[in-house]
């Protein structure tokens, strides 16, 4: 009797197993017919039977579930695509993915590409929270691709979801993420397009075959400085200045010579009004790149923001020594000069009608006109490039009107009208 009972149990189990396979097969046929929503209902109905499935059946189950949620080629439902990715990821956990593992990886990549496209669409539409959620989920499903976590953090910042951004940045720091990549490229001779390759060896094979030329190897900049800066700026945004300083100090302690980090630290110091620290940090960057006019320009901006006009002028002029056509420096020098105009006008308006006052008035008037004349060369430099600064053009028009230079005023009025459409 006992032997008979065991036999009946075994037969019963076999019947259940057969029924499960039949149900999964039915869901697969529904997928192949294109009825994806119906297939999802069918496959989800089998979830309660998972405990009775063997390794092979579980592998089959997740493969079919992935296909049901992947849907047709035009499917853009990110929730379904992410469920498909999750299912395809589980295929290899059972039976070592022996039957469906390789095919599941291909389908998973298809779903991933569609989710990335959806996240990019969200980002372009300024739906930053949605983009961040999708990218973070991508990271959890493909944890080796830490760049998804980085881009999720960036979108959280853009969406002003600062707590989430701090969480993501914290995870990146714990992972030691830098974002540094080595890119291998070569130009396709037929199309003229520069193409990327997964390895130096593969790129070189294409070059040797004659289909590509101009091979290049580039190492991207570290993102650690940007991450440290964003963490600090979030703390500043939340009024946590001490935490902001600690974040920068910790980052600099680990990478004291990292240019990107030094620049980021300088930005934070400027944001916090720490002028001395800002200048000291930026001067470290200048020591490594002394012929960069933009660095002196930034020092000028910092000095101007702190109210030190003379120092700002010195830095702007240093930038112009390196590049006389540096638009920002020319424009800001002119702005500092013309900033004196308000004070002169106030003095003129405060004078009375005495002979001494009238004399003083004429002196101030001449000083004001000379101020305009001195600013003109800098403004002209700021308008000499391919994309002239519209404010510089407008200012030049007004100055020439004040100076009575009718031809010059007419010329800049024409330029201004054209720029304004």
UniProtKB/TrEMBL annotation:
TPR repeat boundaries on the chain: 225-258, 293-326
Any one GO MF term held by the record is:
mannosyltransferase activity
What are the protein's UniProt keywords? Answer: Repeat, Signal, TPR repeat
Q: Which Pfam families match?
A: TPR_19, TPR_2
| Gene Ontology process terms (BP) | endoplasmic reticulum unfolded protein response; protein O-linked glycosylation via mannose
Q: Which domain of life is it from?
A: Bacteria
Q: Which residues form the signal peptide?
A: 1-19
Protein's recorded name? Tfp pilus assembly protein PilF
Origin organism is Leeuwenhoekiella marinoflava
